[in-house]
Amino acid sequence: MSEAWERPIYRDRHGRGERGVLTGIWRPQYRKRSAIFDALAVGQLKRLRTAWPDMINSIQFAVTDIAPTDPLPWEDQQALRSLAYPAEHGKPARIMLFRRPLLNRAIDKHDLQMMIRDELVKRISELSGMSPEEIDPGYTGDWR
After folding, report:
1. Number of neighbouring beta carbons within 10 Å of residue 72
2. CA atoms within 13 A of residue 44's CA, in its CB half-sphere
3. What angle, rounded to 10 degrees, do the helices at 33-51 and 109-128 form?
4. In b/e form, how buried is each residue of 109-132, taking b as 16+ CB within 10 angstroms?
5. pTM value?
6. Model pLDDT for residues 52-88, shown as the tens digit of each residue
7. Eight-state DSSP code of residue 53
8. How do the domains of the chain map onto residue ranges?
9. Three-class DSSP category at 144
């Protein structure tokens, strides 16, 4: 008979059952920061889509970790949190959120949610030509 450590399946440390995961996918500890960020961004987009369905449906949204390149000479030299690309040559307008700069500045989940909201509203206003306050009356513009 082989020793316990030579068997392919180990028991838990008390010898009662197989080792399993410590948290299940339904538990909050399982969710990663990136998944939380994505869920908050989708929630804000759904909220904005109810108010401005035609405008939001004509824009593509994406999330990536960091900006693809260093800021161009005419762009703001701060850490980019998002970019808006106007529609051109048959391509729809696009907004890209950068996850890392927003996550690094956020203190808690509520703070992150407000920063995502402000970035989305600011970029949508750039593309639409409307003021941010018209798009979202709760927009303050000074959220971190």
Report:
1. 8
2. 24
3. 50
4. eeebbbbbbbbbbbbbbbbbeeeb
5. 0.73
6. 999 999 999 999 988 777 666 666 656 688 999 999 9
7. H
8. 28-135
9. coil
Q: Which two tokens stand for residue 55?
A: 């405008």
CA 68 – CA 96 distance, rounded (Å): 11
Contact predicate 16/89, CB 8 Å: no
User: How far is it, in rounded angstroms, from Cα 16 to Cα 13?
Assistant: 8
The HSE-up count of residue 5 (CA atoms within 13 Å, CB side) is 1
13 token code pair: 């440390």
Q: How crowded is the C-beta side of 43, counted as CA atoms within 13 Å?
A: 14
Per the document, the length of the chain is: 144
With contact defined as beta carbons under 8 Å apart, do 41 and 106 qualify?
no
Q: Where on the phi/psi map is residue 90: left (φ > 0), alpha (ψ -120 to 50), or beta?
A: left
Using CA atoms, how far apart are residues 74 and 76, in angstroms rounded to an integer? 7
Domain 28-135 has CATH 3.30.2010.20: yes
Note the pLDDT tens digit of each residue in 38-53. 999 999 999 999 999 9
